[in-house]
Amino acid sequence: MSAIYPQKRKHTAAEMAAKYGVSPRTVKRIMAQPRAEYDAERHARQDEALRLRESGMKWHEVGAELGGVSASAAYRLAAKAKARRPQGVA
């Protein structure tokens, strides 16, 4: 099922639901980013975290570069990118 008006929201579904007096599910049903677009952005962010770490940055520096995420969040992003790599690729 796809949204009626597929697009990336600038606010969370809960925030928009409170503003318009509807449920968060209604907001998601009407307006949601297409899955393929979401996955592409997610993978790009994970790949960027791994690239920064492999360039020699410390985890807290990677997190700061990614927009102020914690060191542990940066680590998890890079780990997910590494897990997506084919076997045998360093």
From TrEMBL:
Protein name as it appears in the record: Replication protein RepB
